[in-house]
Amino acid sequence: MGRPRTAIGTFGEFTYVPAPNGRIKARVRFRDDDGQLRLVQATGGTRKSAERALKQKLTRRDRFSAGSRDLSGDSTFGRLVEVWLADLDLTDKLAPSTRALYERNMRQLVMPAFESHTLREINVRKVDQFIKKLASTKSYSTAKQARTVLSLAFGLAVRYDALKENPVRGIARMHKPPSQTMALTLEQVDAIRDAARGWRRAPGTPGPPPDGQLEQIIEAMLGTSARIGEVLAIRKCDVDVTVSPATVRICGAIVSPAGKPTYRQAHPKTQKSTRVVSVPSFAAEVIRQRLVVVGPEGPDQLLFFTRNGTPLTTNNIRRRLRAVLSEAGIEGVTPHAFRRTVATVLDRASGPDLAAELLGHTSSKITKEHYIQPDEAVDPVTAEILEALAPKRVEGQP
């Protein structure tokens, strides 16, 4: 064939050289994603077939490079999930409980629908139909959680250049079904207190009686507005009963990562929700009782703990509360109900801003939407004002 021949192709200058068995080898230097020039070559029976084979090889390589060494449009969704979870661990910005929730939602809600699809096969229509079906067959909340992890994972694919756009961005807007926040009445709170005090204390009840911590935890939740995990994380050094009113610093949370021991996290649910709250007398009394139990222990000693001295888990307290309320015939009450009750009481007395401040919210909007029971009563002063519209009395008429 003589000297190698060259031609200008889509990917640069192709070179053609003889190959064994009378075939032709086409080759070109290709700049990879890392900036390095590498020789890529393909063989065919003729110059044209060798060129076509080389172009196909370069196209596949270009698509791969357009993504990354980890992801491309031809990667499966399952591969994206692996890379996304590894990226979450690398950035390490999520609380362990949130990280576990994201993975659980992804594997249980999303993966069954998309696991074997390649990224380029997943479009807006497929995601939109998936989310709508989930909302109709499961719930709005379930669909919203699935949408969150889908959007995060596809966002990573966009950042890795494996996709041009995040398909979740184009789906129809989700509409939350109407719901109403419900707070406990004072009568319900007292009934819960009575049920907790009487639980497993009747004469003849087998086993040791309860240690009284559940009742104390209920009072602490009502007196601080804190989440159950935040109450369980209160330490000896976080309280001050020498001032009036007594104060509690909400600055941690008890968390139980999957497969790992329960421990005290050094901040509440969010970093910005650390706060010092003044507590009413009933909560201050509980704190004094716990300080007596703790005795001479060091300042980092938790006020609430197991018989072995380890942190109480939030699931343990929730189970115990369910058992207490079930025996008393009280349904639908969770630890979060106490937090909503506190917010509603404060709103009625002083408005949503004070409620948001106590609950550790950065905005009263969240407090009003999710924690305060709407007040249907209109200010009775309207009746006095509207007296101006009363019909005038005509002398002689009854």
Automatic annotation (TrEMBL):
<keyword id="KW-0233">DNA recombination</keyword>
<dbReference type="InterPro" id="IPR013762">
    <property type="entry name" value="Integrase-like_cat_sf"/>
</dbReference>
<protein>
    <submittedName>
        <fullName>Site-specific integrase</fullName>
    </submittedName>
</protein>
<dbReference type="InterPro" id="IPR004107">
    <property type="entry name" value="Integrase_SAM-like_N"/>
</dbReference>
<dbReference type="Pfam" id="PF14659">
    <property type="entry name" value="Phage_int_SAM_3"/>
</dbReference>
<dbReference type="GO" id="GO:0015074">
    <property type="term" value="P:DNA integration"/>
</dbReference>
<feature type="domain" description="Core-binding (CB)">
    <location>
        <begin position="75"/>
        <end position="158"/>
    </location>
</feature>
<dbReference type="Pfam" id="PF00589">
    <property type="entry name" value="Phage_integrase"/>
</dbReference>
<feature type="domain" description="Tyr recombinase">
    <location>
        <begin position="179"/>
        <end position="384"/>
    </location>
</feature>
<dbReference type="GO" id="GO:0006310">
    <property type="term" value="P:DNA recombination"/>
</dbReference>
<dbReference type="InterPro" id="IPR010998">
    <property type="entry name" value="Integrase_recombinase_N"/>
</dbReference>
<dbReference type="InterPro" id="IPR044068">
    <property type="entry name" value="CB"/>
</dbReference>
<dbReference type="InterPro" id="IPR050090">
    <property type="entry name" value="Tyrosine_recombinase_XerCD"/>
</dbReference>
<dbReference type="GO" id="GO:0003677">
    <property type="term" value="F:DNA binding"/>
</dbReference>
<comment type="similarity">
    <text>Belongs to the 'phage' integrase family.</text>
</comment>
<dbReference type="InterPro" id="IPR011010">
    <property type="entry name" value="DNA_brk_join_enz"/>
</dbReference>
<keyword id="KW-0229">DNA integration</keyword>
<dbReference type="InterPro" id="IPR002104">
    <property type="entry name" value="Integrase_catalytic"/>
</dbReference>
<keyword id="KW-0238">DNA-binding</keyword>
